[in-house]
Structure formats: structure tokens, C-alpha cells
Design brief:
- The protein is α+β, with helices and mostly antiparallel strands.
- Among the domains are: 28 residues; 148 residues, no CATH class; 57 residues; 98 residues, Pnp Oxidase, Chain A (Roll), CATH 2.30.110.70.
- It contains 29 helices and nine strands.
- The strands form two sheets. It has a six-stranded antiparallel barrel.
- A hairpin with a 5-residue loop joins strand 7 and strand 8.
Length: 754
């Protein structure tokens, strides 16, 4: 029984509350309709109000002020003025017509001229209460004078009305005429119009938090009207932005658009949830006609107004880019970054995602524009503002969104690197993107984010200039040498080196080392020296100005870390080159190290100069002089493994040192002054730097007296070549192994080609 009573009481209370809400809603709707009707018919309302005001003032003047006014005149003049009924006011209608003509003529002239460059100006003027009231007062006062004159002609004289019209209304309107004209001139000034549109819109948005607005939010008509009015304000600003030509005005409009959304987001938590329903007027807005199917998503994310503003900004970003207004298009990106900051502070996660999408869209448009015009400035400025927005994400530890933004920056950096490989001016923006990532990584490290996350982000900056399907042979040579991305990565490595983060330093160093394959060892060292000089001597500012001032994006304050990091790079380069040589030619550790040591004596100081160039190898061997046996054996093995001998079909033999072991020789020689030419065959048994050792091939007849010959002429054909060579070598004696030892010659000649 008690439970039934409780249920009955709760239902009763619920019904009472619903009735109270309905009653409040009905009353609020009545007030709203009255205000709406008055607002829609401001001119009529102003006319009725002015007629009522003049009538009331005329009556009050007659009842309370006429006699005191007459006494005042007598006191001031010292004489009795007589009867005011005898005063002729026939001039009054003409005076009123003159004042009205002057005011209306000025209005028509000023507004017609101003409206040519500022659309919607007439609409704004027709809602300006000050103008409506003043003009209707002029008309009503003129009508008041006409009525007085008409009644005077038929003998109905009202002295107080004559005095009130001629002394007060005419004086007041005449004095106010010129200030009003100045007011209109100021009113039609574009900056004031923009401020007024912004102010009217913000007044509406602030009114949405009132209890009356909350009570009316479920009324579709009211909701649709409110949303339409908010959209109309943005459309008005957009129209003015299209027509005006002055940069200052365009900047004011862009700023007010961004300021509107920022203030709206601050007020947004206090709006009724039902307000975010997408009404039919919103769906029919020109900006949303192509968004069929996304209205439910806008209702879920409560983002219809932000989306409207972003679409307008998007369109203007394109227009301003095409018109070459780099500073204004960049200002739009800056306003989007500020909106993103406000969204982060207000914890509007859905709006933050929309801001990210908008920045990505701007990047796509900037890249397309750069493709057509080779213009780098839009990407340059956009990268800065995108970086500012991500910095706010970092400040508020929005880890997932920061990771996504890094991925997007890397994607656009890779695309720019691929599309503009031959355009250094635009390719420079890859370094700009890397610079923004570097600043963010330093802040993330200082904020002590998880090392796993930092590792993932460092990997992103290392891939920013490395398209997966890109051939670096297509890259402009100037870009390869003056690679700004590498300078940025070098500076980041210096930062981590100062912070003793060995993992990141090593990771960046290995990535920089990839340039060895593309540049070659000597060019790599040369560029490394250039980078060192840039980092060591460059200051925080350029000697020239850019859109973002003269900030030097390559500056690093960690100059003390340059030398140790450079030594690390040189050490890694040595290890890498030696390892590759060992793997390619199957060198022993000693052979590889010794060949590296020899390569340091070349002009280029490049290992490839010895491994790939037989001429330079032979020249280096000749310059060695006396060397240890271990090194001598290493040289022999190196020559064999490099195939710098006659067994290599592409080698043109120029020195007897290049004759391969096992090569069959046709030998001839004379003993002393004898004329007999001895001919026999031999085979090369060993060939060192200083001597060649041969053995005779068994043959019929007597053994030739080789030991008595001063010189031997060798003719041979390498097994994989079609060329016959010939040279003369001095006989140097017999080795303990009974092999004939011959000296070397660098005059090997080609005698025949088959």
C-alpha cells in the first residue's frame, strides 16, 4: 500500500513538473515570438514607437512643461512674448523636408556606394535601431508640423504643440543631423561592419545559455531560426571577405571567424544538448549540401557550427593561395591552430580530430598548388602552424593524437620529397617539416614521455625524406649535397648526445650513414664537414628575412657535442665500409684493415678508390717501398681477391705484377752477345710486388740456359681474354725453391688481338 502511494506521489510530481515545464516553455515561446516579430519588422516597430513617443511627449509638454517654458522665456528676455497662437509656422514643413532630404540623400549616397564592396550592408542598415529611430522621428516630426499647420488653418490652434515642434523637435533633429551623418559614415566603414556582425552573432550565441533559450530548444522553428542566424553571420563575413580588396579587412574577417568559434567552444558546454540537432536550414546551407550522410555524425560530435566555419576557411584558403595572398592564407592556418588549442583546453576531442583533418586537407591543397606553381611558401607557413597545434597536443599529453600527427607529417614530407626531387626550393619544405618534428621531439623528451613512444616518433623523423619507392638518382644533386633534413637530424642527434641518450644517437647516426651508398665515401665526408661547419658557426638567425622572420631552423645550441658525434659517424662509416669490403671480396680482418689504411693515403681518402680502380691500386702499390712480409702477403692476397690481374677479362694488363699465377708464358732470350735466340715455355708460379717467379714447362731438347740470360721476353695470353701481351723482365736469379726470379716492368704492351 505504501509503495503504491509512493509511486502515485512520484507520478503526480512528474506530471506537475512536466506541466510546469510546458507552461514555462509556452510562456517563453510567446515572449520569443513577440521579440522575433518585432525584430523581423524593426522598421514598422520603430515607426509605431516614434509616433507613440512624439504623441506622448506632446501631451506631457502641454500638461507640465509649456507654462514653465513660457515663464522661462519671459525671465530670460525681460518681456512678455505674447500669444504663441499668432506665431506663423508655415515654414516648418519645408524645414522638415529639407532636413529629411539632407539626411536621406546622404544615406542613399553613402550606403549605395559602400554596398557595392560590402554586400549585406543594406540588410544591416535596415536593422540598425539608431538609424531607424532617427529617420522615423524626422518623418513623424514633419507629419506633426503638417498636422499643426492644417489644424491652424481651420482655427484649431494648440499653442503648446507649435512650441514643442518648432522649439524642441526641430532644434533637436537639426542639431543631431550632422552627428548622425558622421555616425553613418563610421557605420559603413568595413571594420565597423565586421565588428558589428561579429558582435550581433556573439550576442545571439551568449543568449543561447539563458533559461528561456533552454526552454525553447525543443521547438524546431526556434532552433532552426537560431542556427540559421548563426550561419548567416558567418556567411556575411565570408561574402565580405570575397568582395573587399584590403588585406587589413580580410585579416579582420579571418580573425573574427576564428574568434567566433573559439568563444563558441567556451560557451558550448552550457548549451542545451538538444541545440546540436541539425535542423533543415542547416542541411540546406550551401556549405553542407554535399555532406549528405554526415549529419548524424555532426549531431553525435556536436560539431555542425565548427564544420561550417572550417568549410568556409577551407574555401578561402584555396582562393587566397591562388591569388598569391600567402600571409592571409597562412593566417587562416594560424586561426585553425588557435581553434585547435581551444578545443584541446576544452577537452573537445571530436573537434581536435576535425582540426587534424583540416590541417591535413590544407597540406593536400598546398602541395597541389606547389605542383602547379613551384611555390614553397604555403607549405612552409602551414608546417609552422601545424607544428604549433601539435605542440599544444604535446603540452596536454595527447599521445595518440601526437603519434597520428607525426605520421601525417612524415607522409607529407615523403610526398614532397618524391614530387619535388628536382625542385630545391619546394624540397626545402621537407627540412621545414623535419624542423617542426625536431622541436616537438625535444619537448617530448623534456616532458619525459615513455621511451617506447619516443622511439616510434624518432623513427618518423628519420623516414620523413625517404620515400619507399623513390630512386635517389632522380634527386637534384644540389639537394643531395645541401640536404636540410640531414642537418635537422644532425642537430637532433646533438641534443640526444647532450642528454646521454645513446640509443637515439646511434639510431640517427645509422640513418645518416645511409648516405654513404648514395654519395660515395669522399662526398659523404665532404658533406659531413660542411654540416659540421654549419652547426658550429651558424647562429640562431639568418642574415635574410622569411615569412616567419629570420629564424635559422638549422641552428643547434649543442655545439660541444659536434666533435664526438662526428667521430662516432666516422667510426661507423669505417666499420660499415670495411664490413662491406670483407663481405664482397672475402678479405680477412687484417687485409681489410690494411687496405683501409692504404686508402687513407689516397687524395680522395676513399676505400672504393682502391677496390674499384686498378690504376690507383697499382700506383699505391708502387709507392709503398719496403714493407713487412705480412703486409706484402696481404697485398698479394688483396690483388687476387680484387681480381686485379690477368684472370679478370676486363683488366687491361699494364704491369707484370698483374700477370696471374698459373699464366702460361712464351719466353725468349739471349745469352750475352750470342745471336742464338732461345725460346721455351714457362708458367707463373708466384707474383709478388718485387718479383715474379716462374718455372719452365717440360719440353724436348736441352734445357735453355736461363740463368745466363740478362733479360727475358715474355709473351702471354690470359685464358679469359683474346689479347696477347708482351713485356721484358730482368733476370734476378734463382730462388731456394729452384724457381727463376724475374724483376717487374710497367711497360706491358698489347701485340695481338684475336
Amino acid at each position: 500500500m505504501e509503495e503504491a502511494l509512493k509511486n502515485s506521489d512520484s507520478e503526480l510530481n512528474k506530471n506537475v513538473n512536466e506541466n510546469a515545464e510546458n507552461s514555462e516553455s509556452g510562456f517563453s515561446y510567446l515572449i520569443y515570438r513577440l521579440i522575433a516579430v518585432a525584430d523581423q519588422n524593426r522598421s514598422t516597430a520603430a515607426l509605431l514607437g516614434c509616433l507613440f513617443l512624439i504623441t506622448v511627449l506632446d501631451i506631457l509638454f502641454d500638461l507640465y512643461l509649456f507654462e514653465p517654458y513660457v515663464d522661462l522665456i519671459e525671465t530670460l528676455s525681460g518681456s512678455k512674448p505674447g500669444e504663441f497662437a499668432e506665431v506663423d509656422i508655415g515654414f516648418a514643413p519645408e524645414v522638415w523636408q529639407a532636413i529629411l532630404g539632407m539626411v536621406l540623400g546622404t544615406l542613399i549616397l553613402v550606403i549605395s556606394i559602400a554596398s557595392q564592396s560590402i554586400p549585406k550592408l543594406i540588410d544591416l542598415y535596415m536593422k540598425d535601431l539608431i538609424s531607424l529611430i532617427y529617420v522615423w522621428i524626422l518623418i513623424a516630426s514633419g507629419a506633426h508640423a503638417g498636422v499643426i499647420k492644417l489644424y491652424g488653418e481651420i482655427g484649431l490652434v494648440r499653442e503648446s504643440s507649435r512650441v514643442f515642434n518648432a522649439h524642441f523637435l526641430m532644434t533637436f533633429c537639426g542639431i543631431v543631423a550632422f552627428p548622425y551623418i558622421f555616425y553613418i559614415l563610421r557605420y559603413t566603414k568595413p571594420t565597423n561592419i565586421i565588428a558589428q556582425i561579429y558582435g550581433i552573432n556573439m550576442d545571439l550565441i551568449r543568449s543561447l545559455v539563458t533559461p528561456r533559450s533552454h526552454a525553447l530548444v525543443k521547438n524546431d522553428t526556434v532552433l532552426s531560426s537560431q542556427q540559421h542566424t548563426m550561419f548567416e553571420s558567418l556567411n556575411q563575413l565570408d561574402d565580405i571577405l570575397e568582395y573587399v580588396s584590403f588585406k587589413e579587412l580580410k585579416g579582420d574577417i579571418i580573425y573574427d571567424m576564428g574568434r567566433t568559434i573559439r568563444n563558441y567552444m567556451l560557451i558550448k558546454p552550457y548549451l542545451h544538448p538538444e541545440f546540436f540537432r541539425v535542423s533543415e536550414k542547416v542541411r540546406s546551407d550551401i556549405s553542407f549540401k554535399t555532406l549528405v550522410g554526415q549529419y548524424e555524425e555532426m549531431e553525435r560530435t556536436r560539431s555542425f557550427y565548427e564544420q561550417k566555419c572550417f568549410r568556409l576557411m577551407n574555401n578561402n584558403y584555396i582562393k587566397l593561395m591562388e591569388q598569391g595572398e600567402f600571409d592571409l592564407s597562412s593566417m587562416i592556418a594560424g586561426e585553425v591552430a588557435k581553434i585547435g588549442q581551444t578545443a584541446i583546453e576544452c577537452e573537445e576531442e571530436d573537434i581536435v580530430e576535425i582540426v587534424i583533418i583540416r590541417f591535413n586537407t590544407f597540406f593536400r591543397m598546398s602541395i597541389k598548388h606547389a605542383l602547379r606553381n613551384n611555390e614553397p611558401r604555403n607549405i612552409y607557413n602551414l608546417s609552422f602552424f601545424y607544428g604549433q597545434f601539435i605542440f599544444h597536443l604535446v603540452e596536454h599529453k595527447k599521445i595518440d593524437q601526437v603519434k597520428k600527427c607525426f605520421m601525417y607529417l612524415r607522409m607529407y614530407g615523403v610526398e614532397i620529397a618524391r614530387l619535388f626531387a628536382g625542385v630545391p626550393s619546394v624540397y626545402f619544405n621537407v627540412a621545414v617539416i623535419a624542423c617542426e618534428m625536431k622541436k616537438l621531439l625535444e619537448q617530448i623528451y623534456n616532458d619525459r614521455w615513455d621511451m617506447e613512444i619516443q622511439t616510434a616518433l624518432v623513427n618518423e623523423i628519420l623516414q620523413v625524406d625517404n620515400p619507399p619507392d623513390f630512386n635517389k638518382d632522380d634527386l637534384d644533386q644540389g639537394i643531395m649535397i645541401n640536404n636540410g633534413v640531414r642537418w635537422i637530424q644532425f642537430g637532433l642527434a646533438l641534443f640526444y648526445h647532450r642528454e646521454k641518450e645513446e640509443e637515439f644517437v646511434q639510431r640517427i647516426a645509422k640513418d645518416i650513414l645511409d648516405d654513404l651508398d648514395d654519395l660515395g665515401e669522399s662526398t659523404f665526408y665532404r658533406i659531413l664537414g660542411m654540416t659540421e661547419g654549419l652547426m658550429r658557426f651558424a647562429g640562431p638567425t639568418f642574415w635574410e628575412d622569411t615569412d616567419r622572420g629570420n629564424l635559422n631552423i638549422f641552428f643547434s645550441p649543442d655545439k660541444d657535442e659536434i666533435t664526438p658525434f662526428k667521430e662516432r659517424l666516422l667510426g661507423l662509416a669505417k666499420e660499415n665500409l670495411i664490413l662491406r669490403a670483407k663481405q664482397k671480396y672475402i678479405f680477412s680482418d687484417f687485409e681489410a684493415e690494411y687496405l683501409w689504411e692504404l686508402s687513407r693515403n689516397t687524395k680522395e681518402k676513399e676505400l672504393a678508390q682502391l677496390t674499384d680502380n686498378i690504376v690507383k691500386f697499382e700506383k699505391m702499390v708502387l709507392e709503398l717501398g719496403e714493407i713487412e712480409k705480412e703486409k706484402l702477403d696481404a697485398i698479394i692476397q688483396i690483388r687476387e681477391k680484387l681480381r686485379f690481374n690477368s684472370d679478370n677479362p676486363v683488366v687491361v694488363v699494364t704491369s707484370s705484377r698483374q700477370i696471374a699465377v698459373g699464366t702460361k708464358l712464351e719466353v725468349s732470350g739471349k745469352v750475352g752477345d750470342q745471336k742464338t735466340l732461345h725460346q721455351f715455355k714457362a708458367v707463373v708460379m708466384f707474383n709478388s710486388i718485387n718479383f715474379m717467379y716462374i718455372n719452365l714447362v717440360a719440353q724436348q731438347g736441352s734445357v735453355p740456359p736461363v740463368a745466363k740470360m740478362a733479360q727475358l721476353t715474355l709473351r702471354f695470353k690470359p685464358p679469359r681474354q683474346h689479347t696477347y701481351y708482351q713485356c721484358r723482365l730482368p733476370f734476378e736469379g734463382i730462388s731456394p725453391e729452384k724457381m727463376f726470379r724475374l724483376g717487374h716492368s710497367d711497360s706491358v704492351k698489347i701485340t695481338e688481338e684475336s
